[in-house]
Amino acid sequence: MPPVPPQLQRICLHWTAGGLTPNAVDKQHYHFIVAGDGTVVSGKYTPEANGKQLTNRDKYAAHCGGGNSFTIGIAVCGGPKGFKPGTFTQASLESACRKIAECCHYYGIGVTPETVYTHYEFGLRHAGTDSAGKIDINQIPWEPSLSPKAVGDYIRQRVTSYL
Ligand SMILES: [Zn+2]
């Protein structure tokens, strides 16, 4: 039988909770990391490494506890407003949304809450996983009126604007 081609069905967006430049740990855990200036850096693993039902013998980007199989992981560098050493930037989020749109186009992934979401949203929907209680991303520093639950829709709307 020929090998099953990689299947990538979903994209999960994170913040790194680190500095504004990707480091080695970030590259280990995400397929793409976006620096504070908007530069997209590739991680150690390609999305294809996650394009199957994963087992603990596989080598892949572990970015979303309970949700790594078939799922691309993208992160903006930094954290929430006031986070030391850095708050994630509008340049990095816009660049991440452009990269997500590119991946949606390339892998044939639609932009819906079930297929393009934040780690925060995944955690809300999967209470029994390590992702429960994750707060990335539950705020947009330059859009302070958005509630945590409105952030995912804001991000999907930005992604859609790049398609
Ligand atoms: Zn995360």
At CATH level 2, the architecture is: 3-Layer(aba) Sandwich
Number of strands: 5
Which small compounds were modeled alongside the protein? zinc ion
Average pLDDT for all residues: 96
CATH topology annotation:
Lysozyme-like
Main sheet specs: 5 strands, mixed
**Number of helical segments with 4 or more residues:** 4
State the separation between the terminal residues, measured CA to CA.
36 Å
Provide a short characterization of the protein structure:
The protein has about 160 residues and is an alpha/beta fold.
Task: Quickly list its features.
five-stranded mixed β-sheet; binds zinc ion; 163 residues; alpha/beta; 4 helices; 13% strand; Lysozyme-like; 5 strands
Please give a structural write-up.
- It is built from four helices and five strands, in the order βαβββαβαα.
- With about 160 residues, it is an alpha/beta fold.
- It has a five-stranded mixed β-sheet.
- A hairpin with a 5-residue loop joins β2 and β3.
- α2 crosses α4.
- The chain is globular and about 55 Å long.
- It starts with 9 loop residues before the first strand and ends with a helix.
Outline the secondary-structure elements.
Layout: E1 10-15, H1 24-29, E2 32-34, E3 40-42, E4 71-76, H2 90-107, E5 116-118, H3 119-125, H4 148-161
Parallel strand pairs: 1-4, 1-5, 2-4
Antiparallel strand pairs: 2-3
This protein binds zinc ion (ZN).
